[in-house]
């Protein structure tokens, strides 16, 4: 039978719509956190753990790759739910491949020796195929060659767009069959995070554009009195 | 003697099962759909009535249970006890499961139409189809009951 633990919570959350069409999140972080108070203590802690594993930007800079890997191992020991495991696995796989691409891009001729730099079943495979453009993972991760190209071209916005789109699709697939259960809540929050980050990137771009316009306006102003 | 008593108990269980199971299912179904209605009302500023109405849809299963019980209601004898048990339990289980799944359909309809109000009518289709299967169970319980002594 379908799990219906969080019917009220899921029904109270607005639809997220399309990722790249969003101008802002349909629900603010404060409001979302208020709604998430409907989670049991255990589920709230699990959600926090998942967010910490996936989103590193708000964690201390001194957090090492090894610590992240330890946290992932602990998660997989504690959690048997297949969907939640798949959510974390797919995201850590993506982080691992991107980490390898970035290391190679910065000039690492060989895979890292004697240090933990990634997590999952592809780490040793990537190390074996370090010199291949897509680590011979094109069949598994269709985006890897494109990501490699964008990284080489330093097109960071296009790369982010590619990765966000990939994660969004993965979450869409994993959400099949989950409508009112904890997995649905986790997937909603992770997708909300994507929308939030993407729309904030846009606002940052808008601020830069605004500053540029102001600067050019000031330039004209200076020219008037030149 | 013991065997007869056992048969009579089964007969009485069958007689009351449609109402009991139908009511249990309707409670669960209405709870699921009602939770969705409350969630939707937290997000919206109006149009609450139709969500509350939709949340009450699974309650029809308990009415079907009452109808079947009235049709089955007769003096329980060792001859008709087996028939009463079979029809009553069968119909009751059908109402129980139909109402739970109908509740889930209604909850999905509420969340879906909250996001896209124009699909409200169409979103009711799955719940209506489930209702149709419960009506099959009701009608054929009535047909089968006509053959009982």
Global mean pLDDT of chain B: 93
CATH superfamily of chain B: lithium bound rotor ring of v- atpase
**Biggest β-sheet of chain B: count, sense, barrel?**
none
Shape of chain A: globular
Low-confidence stretches of chain A: none
Report the radius of gyration of chain B as a whole number of Å: 18 Å
Order of helices and strands of chain A: HHHHHHHHH
Count of spatially separate domains of chain B? 1
What average pLDDT do the residues of chain A reach? 86
CATH topology of chain B: Four Helix Bundle (Hemerythrin (Met), subunit A)
How many H/I helical runs of chain B? Answer: 6
Explain this structure.
The complex is a heterodimer of chains A (226) and B (149). With 226 residues, chain A is mainly alpha-helical. Chain A has helices at 7-11, 29-35, 41-54, 65-78, 82-105, 123-128, 144-152, 156-174, 182-224. Chain A has one domain (25-224). Chain A is built from nine helices and no strands. In chain A, helix 5 packs antiparallel against helix 8 and helix 7 (144-152) packs antiparallel against helix 8. The radius of gyration of chain A is 21 Å and the shape is globular. The mean pLDDT of chain A is 86. By secondary structure, chain B is an all-alpha fold. Chain B has a single domain (2-145), classed as lithium bound rotor ring of v- atpase (Four Helix Bundle (Hemerythrin (Met), subunit A), Up-down Bundle). In chain B, helix 1 packs antiparallel against helix 2. The two termini of chain B are 21 Å apart.
């Amino acid at each position: 039978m379908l799990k219906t633990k969080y019917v009220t919570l899921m029904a109270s959350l607005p639809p997220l719509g399309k990722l790249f069409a969003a101008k802002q999140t349909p629900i603010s972080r404060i409001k979302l956190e208020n709604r998430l108070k409907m989670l049991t203590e255990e589920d709230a802690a699990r959600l926090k753990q998942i967010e910490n594993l996936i989103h590193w930007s708000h964690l201390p800079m001194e957090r090492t790759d090894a610590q992240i890997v330890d946290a992932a191992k602990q998660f997989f020991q504690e959690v048997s739910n297949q969907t939640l495991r798949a959510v974390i696995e797919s995201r850590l796989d993506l982080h691992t491949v991107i980490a390898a691409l970035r290391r190679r891009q910065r000039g690492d001729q060989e895979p890292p020796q004697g240090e933990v730099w990634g997590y999952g079943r592809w780490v040793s495979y990537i190390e074996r195929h370090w010199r291949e453009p897509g680590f011979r993972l094109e069949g598994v991760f269709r985006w890897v060659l494109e990501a490699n190209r964008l990284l080489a071209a330093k097109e960071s916005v296009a790369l982010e767009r590619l990765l966000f789109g990939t994660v969004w699709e993965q979450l869409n697939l994993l959400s099949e069959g989950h409508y009112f259960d904890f997995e649905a809540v986790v997937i909603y929050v992770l997708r909300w995070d994507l929308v939030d980050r993407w729309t904030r990137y846009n606002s940052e771009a808008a601020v830069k554009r605004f500053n540029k316009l102001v600067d050019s306006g000031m330039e004209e102003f200076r020219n008037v009195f030149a | 003697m013991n065997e007869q008593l056992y048969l009579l108990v089964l007969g009485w269980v069958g007689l009351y099962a449609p109402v009991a199971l139908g009511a249990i299912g309707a409670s669960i179904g209405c709870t699921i759909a009602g939770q969705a209605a409350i969630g939707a009302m937290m997000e919206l500023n109006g149009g609450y009535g139709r969500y509350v109405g939709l949340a009450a849809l699974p309650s029809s299963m308990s009415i079907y249970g009452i109808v079947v019980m009235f049709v089955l209601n007769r003096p329980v004898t060792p001859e008709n006890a087996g028939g009463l048990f079979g029809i009553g339990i069968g119909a009751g289980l059908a109402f129980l499961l139909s109402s739970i799944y109908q509740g889930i359909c209604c909850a999905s309809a509420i969340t879906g139409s909250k996001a896209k109000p124009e699909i409200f009518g169409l979103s009711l289709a799955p719940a209506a189809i489930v209702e149709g299967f419960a009506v099959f169970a009701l009608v054929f319980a009535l047909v089968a009951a006509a053959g009982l002594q």
